[in-house]
Amino acid sequence: MTDTATPHDALLRVAPEHRELLDQVLDKWSLRVLDELCERPLRFNELRRAVPVVTQKSLTTTLRRLERNGMVDRVVLSSRPVAVEYRISRLGRTIQDLIDALYVWSADNMADVERARERFDAAE
């Protein structure tokens, strides 16, 4: 860091592997899935109903990515027929406060964002 740099500046220069993780965890479907799973474990079709705009393929890809990153646990239930349930993992639970903070930030700043959009669109 230079003399004028702050510790915050170092955080803004995220290493490529961290950026990849952030991209995977903060994409639009991952946030929605994690938010739903923070409430309770859900089966695949329950998740599809909770996030109706996501396609089956996108949801499958999102769940696999979240499972691979340790955010979600895939649990095979011993029922007839066999079922699979997705649960927020211990690691995934640690991101809940951040997701909540993003939602609060968006609610708190939506009016300013709308005004900025209107100014931008008017200038176009």
TrEMBL record:
Transmembrane domains' residue ranges: none
Domain HTH hxlR-type: 15-114
Pfam families: HxlR
InterPro entries, per the entry: HTH_HxlR, WH-like_DNA-bd_sf, WH_DNA-bd_sf
Domain of life assignment: Bacteria
A single GO molecular function term of this UniProt record: DNA binding
UniProt keyword terms in alphabetical order: DNA-binding, Transcription, Transcription regulation
Name of this chain's protein: Transcriptional regulator, HxlR family
Lineage: Bacteria, Bacillati, Actinomycetota, Actinomycetes, Micrococcales
